[in-house]
Amino acid sequence: xxxxxxxxxxxxxxxxxxxxxxxxxxxxxxxxxxxxxxxxxxxxxxxxxxxxxxxxxxxxxxxxxxxxxxxxxxxxxxxxxxxxxxxxxxxxxxxxxxxxxxxxxxxxxxxxxxxxxxxxxxxxxxxxxxxxxxxxxxxxxxxxxxxxxxxxxxxxxxxxxxxxxxxxxxxxxxxxxxxxxxxxxxx
Length: 187
What we know:
By secondary structure, the chain is of the alpha+beta class. It is built from 2 helices and 11 strands. Strand 3 (68-70) and strand 4 (75-77) form a beta hairpin.
């Protein structure tokens, strides 16, 4: 029995030595590889806005006061009174990309006229020569940056319909709120 215990102790010692020897041997064959580096992000800016001093009334349009352009908040505002069928008001403004990368016009969101308003008015937006009379999505018109082609012309027009029926003429002044939002994303 004592002999068997001695054999077990010896066997445990040999196994412990083998494990120790294998771990030292494995450590001798282990290697760590390191990768180091730096990345510098260049200076860029997003700057899509209305071009200062490009806002103007379209020839033939009724005179309307209160046409303003706020380039800091990228907003154009107008308020006009159309007195009789056939009158229209239209203004033109340029959208410019002074940023450092292309912008893509992805959507034009326009006021949806009610049925009663649509009998009185036609509301349209012309973007770079293409006319829209309702909202449009999935557009892909590129507004290039900092090149000779970094501006697009926008014309907003509201018409007092000339084809209006006599029974649809308003008995009192009717004010209709109109808006257009041009949705740009990074190109």
